[in-house]
Amino acid sequence: MTMKKAKIAVLVSGGGTNLQALLDAQAAGLLPHGEIALVVSSNEGAYALTRAANAGVPAETVSPKRCGGQAAFESALSDLLAAHEIDLIVLAGFLTILSADFTARTCKTAYIRDEHHERIQHIVHIIGKNKITLSGYIDNVLAEHFASHKDEMTKLYELSKPIF
Q1: Which of 1, 17, 87, 130 is deepest in the core (most CB within 10 A)?
Q2: CB neighbours of 108 closer than 8 A, spacing ≥ 6?
Q3: 24-59 pLDDT, tens per residue?
Q4: Using one digit for the tens of pLDDT, what is the confidence trace for 52-101?
Q5: What is the pTM of this model?
Q6: What is the number of helices (H) and of strands (E) in the chain?
């Protein structure tokens, strides 16, 4: 049985260096259990939007300022994520705070803080004895999580069709 790839949305606010690392990993086939299906920026001038366009990934700008406040922003963001059937959100340098309510009712969220990226990458190299990349490690963690929580996640999100 073929497992459905998780659809990933990467939320950004700036240059998108973490996004580029993920896009490069995807292009190299290092994300076999997931695909970057959407990039969302809170800043319409973010270079990350150009990176997404260059990789052929749909990109949108949604911000509290443009939406008229936090509640309207989170509603617009939820609608956008639902329209793209997103399974996982990666916050990669996303500078807009999301409420606890938003994160509780949307898909799973992974947060990569710029100041932790290098440290995490170093730890992964130690654990993987220099034979696995950060993106490969993240993909393995996602695959194990999805496999062990498949029924729970499907029920939690009340999808009309299974996630996997």
Answers
A1: 87
A2: 87, 88, 89, 145, 153
A3: 888 888 888 889 999 999 999 999 999 999 999 999
A4: 999 999 999 998 889 999 899 999 999 999 999 988 888 888 888 888 78
A5: 0.68
A6: 8, 5
